[in-house]
Amino acid sequence: MNNVIEMKHPLIQHKISRLRDKNTGTAEFRALVEEIAILMGYEALKDLPLEDVEVETPIEKCMTPQIAGRNFAIVPILRAGLGMVSGLQALVPTAKIGHIGLYRDEETHEPHEYYCKLPSPISERLIVVTDPMLATGGSAVAAVDFIKQHGGKKIKFMAIIAAPEGVERLMEAHPDIQLYVGHIDRELNKDAYICPGLGDAGDRIFGTK
């Protein structure tokens, strides 16, 4: 899978280990998710389009590159994906933010949409979909489906940890996207939780159970 990038940077791996620890509290967990998003975003956004603009330095005028306007959108999958948004916004403060709301059926583990709002025109933007967990891949596939239905073309997906089953399902459904993953874990258990995983990312980010 050439479009799957598992990130091996020591800082990312160290911070993921802190996320896994059941004794890591809400405030630290939330901060770690944001920091990992920054580190992953540095790599994932390396192909943002640039344009030359004229600026005046203290010495002279010059042409220098900056990120081209209206070209980047962050689309978190609610609710856990919200935890990664601030990290990417720290890199690109002008980014537009969309939202996709999905919930998972407790019996079938399949996703159901309850909200979708995307920046317009979505077709002109590089889109980064965020969700800390890529488990069965159902929500990820559905989110990318919705974005493509609205005209999105250049899509990246960013997950902190993933199960092999989810990676395979997402890339089979959408082989044209790029998937950035902090770590690919061993497997899903019978309840469709990632093992060894880190528990429920949404609950740990927001301090709920």
How would you characterize this protein structure?
The structure is a single chain. The strands form 3 sheets. Strands 1, 4, 5, 6, 7, 8, 9, 10 and 11 form a 9-stranded mixed sheet that branches. Helix 1 runs antiparallel to helix 2 (26-44) and helix 2 (26-44) crosses helix 3 (85-91). The longest helix is centred in the first third of the chain and has 19 residues, at 26-44. The protein is an alpha/beta fold. It has 6 helices and 13 strands. It has helices spanning 10-20, 26-44, 85-91, 138-149, 164-173, 201-206, and strands at 4-6, 50-56, 61-67, 72-78, 96-97, 99-104, 111-117, 126-130, 133-134, 154-162, 178-184, 187-188, 194-195. Helix content is 31%, strand content 32%.
What is the number of helical segments per DSSP (H or I, 4+ residues)? 6
**Using DSSP, what is the number of strands?**
13
Low-confidence stretches at least 5 residues in length (pLDDT < 50)? Answer: none
The helix-strand sequence is EHHEEEHEEEEEHEHEEEH
Straight-line N-to-C gap: 35 Å
Quaternary state of this entry equals single chain
Q: What is the makeup of the main sheet?
A: 9 strands, mixed
The coarse overall form would be globular
Specify Rg, calculated over alpha carbons: 18 Å
> On the 0-100 scale, what is the average pLDDT?
92
Give the amount of beta strand, in percent: 25-35%
Percent range of helical residues: 25-40%
Determine the structural class based on helices, strands and strand pairing: alpha/beta
Brief description of this entry?
With about 210 residues, this protein is an alpha/beta fold. It contains 6 helices and 13 strands.
